[in-house]
Write a structure and sequence with these properties.
The protein is mainly α. Helices cover 76% and strands 1% of the residues. Helix 2 packs antiparallel against helix 12, helix 2 crosses helix 13 and helix 4 packs antiparallel against helix 12. It is a multi-pass membrane protein.
Length: 414
């Protein structure tokens, strides 16, 4: 006797619609939650720029002031690039300010005291940064001492070495070629009626690169059936970024042109953006910070990756030391004081997670720019330094609180 299978029950039309609506709502919620950290930081940056433009009657957006912001805070942005990678891996580095001081001191002794060429001082500073990074990476990766302790010891050690190298005195001035690293400009390469065309061309290329990269990322997510923002929203975001970038490029073009240090910073952002998002090393860094046990079981060479993370931080600290000593036209025993806190704050404000595994290079740079705009704006308003420190502390606290809130909301949604 053949048994006939019962006919499939058809869901009511209203139930199907409700399920579809629920699925669509979930996809939108997932998209908003996933993009909130990155998108929110850009919105906050634009809002803060607009706020201080109003409070300072437009002075904060003047060509000269925008140029000064880039020159004054470039070394913090360089440190933030390295610091966010350290934080993504679940570590912290408290020694970067002392490394900035020591590398600048070594460069000053060789160039100012010994009379060597300016480029020798730069190479020597970078070499010292590599050695320092390898020293700290060894203790963290192969001995197993927590990075907090190793870099805290490094902060004291390298500050003492700085005082020893300088003989507890300041050295200045550097040759003009060395000063060009932080204070030089590329101006007049293409000419222009009252403004620098080259700066505008570089800005346009940057916007085009951002648009192409964003479009390729969007196509890749669609290919893997991941939720993406609507195309009009994507276009609006690219246009907004393009307008902001070209506005700043126009301001720079009407001031002194394109700062050399901005070119250095742009190259670092592009290079480390590719490393963190496209390379095996970058994926391993995220894996270690996200789930150390899973990364180890997956075959990630955790010790080697951690070692090179700190070598990289040492190199970027040396670059920041070169920029800072170039801008200050000398080396001082107290140089770099509290720089580590500014770099850490930039990384967290830019979206890095306290527990590791989350963060982007661009986000850290934007976080650093937020700190720079706030500091510069409050200085223009004549606000006292203690109040400035208090405001920056509150902003950092709110950024970390926002990160924790997002984690709890994501956990409760599962």
């Amino acid at each position: 006797m053949t048994r006939t299978a019962p006919p499939e029950e058809k869901a009511p039309e209203g139930a199907t619609t409700a399920a579809a609506l629920h699925t669509g709502t979930s996809n939108v919620r997932e998209l908003l939650t996933r993009n909130m950290r990155q998108s929110g930081i850009y919105v906050a940056f634009v809002a803060i720029v607009a706020l201080f433009a109003i409070l300072t009657d437009g002075v904060s957006l003047s060509p000269i002031n925008i140029t000064n912001i880039i020159l004054q805070y470039s070394y913090i942005l360089v440190l933030a690039i390295g610091m966010v990678i350290v934080i993504i891996a679940g570590h912290i580095d408290l020694s970067v300010g002392s490394v900035v001081a020591l590398t600048g001191a070594v460069s000053a002794v060789l160039v100012i005291q010994q009379g060597m060429p300016w480029w020798v001082g730069i190479l020597a500073a970078i070499a010292v940064g590599v050695v320092i990074g390898a020293w700290q990476g060894f203790w963290v990766a192969y001995v197993g001492i927590p990075a907090f302790i190793v870099t805290l010891a490094g902060m004291l050690l390298f500050r003492g070495l700085t005082q020893q190298v300088l003989g507890n005195i300041s050295l200045s001035p550097f040759p003009a070629e060395y000063q060009e690293v932080a204070t030089g400009f590329l101006n007049g390469l293409f000419g222009g009626p009252g403004y620098d065309v080259f700066t505008l061309v570089i800005g346009a290329l940057g916007v085009a690169g951002y648009a192409v990269s964003g479009f390729r990322t969007r196509l890749a997510r669609i290919t893997y059936q991941q939720p993406v923002e609507s195309f009009p929203l994507f276009v609006a975001r690219v246009v907004l970024v393009g307008v902001v970038v070209m506005y700043f490029a126009w301001q720079l073009a009407n001031a002194r042109g394109l700062p050399v240090v901005l070119i250095i910073l742009g190259v670092l952002v592009l290079a480390y953006g590719v490393v963190t998002r496209r390379s095996v090393f970058g994926r391993q860094v995220y894996a270690i910070g996200g789930n150390l046990s899973a990364a180890t079981l997956s075959g990630v060479k955790v010790r080697a990756v951690n070692f090179w993370i700190f070598v990289n931080m040492g190199v970027l600290s040396a670059v920041a030391g070169i920029i800072f000593s170039s801008r200050s036209n000398g080396a001082q025993p107290g140089a770099g004081n509290m720089f580590e806190l500014d770099a850490i704050a930039a990384a967290f404000i830019g979206g890095a997670a306290v527990t590791g595994g989350v963060g982007t290079v661009v986000g850290a740079v934007v976080g650093g720019l937020i700190m720079a705009v706030m500091s510069n704006g409050m200085q223009l308003m004549g606000i006292e330094q203690p109040i400035q420190s208090a405001v920056k502390g509150i902003v950092l606290l709110l950024a970390v609180a926002f990160d924790i809130y997002n984690k709890r909301r994501a956990g409760s949604a599962r």
